[in-house]
Design brief:
The structure holds two protein chains of two kinds.
Chain A: H1 2-13, H2 16-23, H3 31-38, H4 42-75, H5 79-83, H6 89-125, H7 134-159, H8 166-190, H9 199-211, H10 221-226, H11 232-259
Chain B: E1 2-14, E2 20-32, E3 36-40, H1 47-54, E4 62-67, E5 70-71, E6 81-84, H2 96-106, H3 114-124, H4 140-152, E7 158-162, H5 170-185, E8 189-194, H6 197-203, E9 206-211, E10 214-220, H7 221-227, E11 229-237, E12 251-255, E13 258-264, H8 268-278, E14 281-289, H9 292-300
Parallel strand pairs in B: 3-8, 3-9, 6-7, 7-8
Antiparallel strand pairs in B: 1-2, 1-4, 4-5, 9-10, 11-13, 11-14, 12-13
Classes of the chains: A mainly alpha, B alpha/beta.
The structure holds adenosine-5'-triphosphate and magnesium ion.
Adenosine-5'-triphosphate binds near residues 15 and 86 of chain B.
Chain lengths: ~260, ~300
Amino acid sequence: MLNHFEITFKSIIRDRIFHGIIFSALIFLLIPSVATLSMRQATELSMTLSLSLISFILLLLSLFLGGTHLWRDIERRYTYPVLSWPSSRSAYLVGKFSGIAAFIFLVALLLGGVAVLTVLITAGIYPPERPIVWNLFFLSIFFDACKYILIVAFAFLFSSVATSFFLPVFGSICIYFVGNASQQVHDYINAPATIGISSITKNMATFVYYILPNFSAFDFKINAVYRVPIQVSGVLMTGVYFVVYLCMVISVATLLFEKREMN
Amino acid sequence: MKALEIHNLVKIFKTKKGQSVHALNDLSFDVMQGEVFGFLGPNGAGKSTTIKTLVGLITPSSGNALINGVPVSTGTARLKVGYLPENPAFYDYLTPEEYLTYVARSFLVPVAEVPRCIEQTLKLLELWDARKRQMRSFSKGMVQRVGLAQVLVHDPDIYILDEPMSGLDPLGRSLVKNIILELKNRGKTVFFSTHITDDVEKVCDRVGIIVKGSLVAVNNVENLLKGGVEGYLVSLQSADSTLQNLAPFSVLRQSGTIFEYYIPKDGFNRFMELVIRSGSEVVLVETRRKNLEDYFLSLVK
Ligand SMILES: Nc1ncnc2c1ncn2[C@@H]1O[C@H](COP(=O)(O)OP(=O)(O)OP(=O)(O)O)[C@@H](O)[C@H]1O
Ligand SMILES: [Mg+2]
């Protein structure tokens, strides 16, 4: 498994599209100048922009790495020799997935470092009224990365059955939108002000809500930017949710992949 | 001991349009330990399907296969197996050296021995100079050589090769033949598919012929070749006048005073009697046998 992990890592680093995506991180250089233009709440603006940019780069990476990696191995028939080796198919899939997950964490860490510099520069020019809470800032980036790792897991789930890149790529884009909207839809349906929805529909919606990912749980941007403290229990809940959900998606993906015919 | 056992394999592929393709029909045969077994068959006969089943890439619709007595669905059954896919492809962003390291580690080759194993195989397959180049720039034959290298590098006991000579130049082909013979000398089992009867004649102990998903013959190559003598090509040196004595047999070709005759197997003794009586001199006798190709063609038709 460690073997597959290592090879996946190498493959990402040597990929041209990856270089392109990382190149886009240069936009960070623009943030301080844009933020200082606003004069008021420049630090907050700079933090928001940085977090959004990190989020966007991670989204691209997760769609690209998750959507193409496993699928391409199968499509280009790299899997023929590899899956005939003694290590199990699940070891291959989990190894590959962890390679990508670790990579996304690494990129998040690097971009987080760049973001800190960006924010510090802005804060140096227009000092903020309240001190920056870095813990919250890092926590926000960390859970953002978790969210995209879940998307990679979904992309792997789709790749384990897909015969073209269509399902993994567009499937995970759908998951991204659905995951971001699910909380709102749930809140709307269950709000006391909402009338005219039968209880069956309500129950079904709740059921779907529990199956689909809920990405709003991973969103701590507001807390980071406006220094709104988070309760430890909230962080723990999100952490547990991430681990459990991830294990479920990856388990289903491995089960499907074990059954798959390689031809 | 049986290295490979195939019992009543059936494979039915479902195409996307819902048609079913019967790729294997009740296929059964064994390959013994230490044997070189050639798997011969026309295009689409089911060779690759059989091989993919053996290495666990596809599951049979019914029947089963064993490697050293262990069902192929168990991953560890393949710990001592080297598999070369048909038209193989390898991670093209890796160098042969990196890829072989990946292979060797996956087959649990002791870490200290990995560099030596890799060096040996790369040199054997004449890839040593290209060992630090990414494989995306490799020619077809070079990729095929990497394919053979990834089979040899972990020194398995059983070799399952899908068209090992395909895409290789004559030098490469003869290299592969020598490698197979060398493996045989070391007591390894080799099972390979091919279309080329000549390869089978040169290296195999036994040959199995598959047509439309069924095995139509399994035979000992040596017996096949011995049993196949059909006649002789005899060249005589003689004067025209003496030829009348050989009248029942007709001349095939003549150049100067050399006359060439084709003599069917059962007429040979009679012919030689006449030759001796005529006083002609025998310059050359060549055996004409039905070769594996004729045998193969007669079975396929
Ligand atoms: N995935 C698939 N879906 C449908 N039919 C398939 C599939 N794979 C193989 N077949 C069919 O199974 C049969 C056997 O194919 P196979 O690849 O085993 O032939 P082969 O003997 O290896 O031929 P070749 O000498 O051309 O390599 C063919 O008729 C082929 O069309
Ligand atoms: Mg084939």
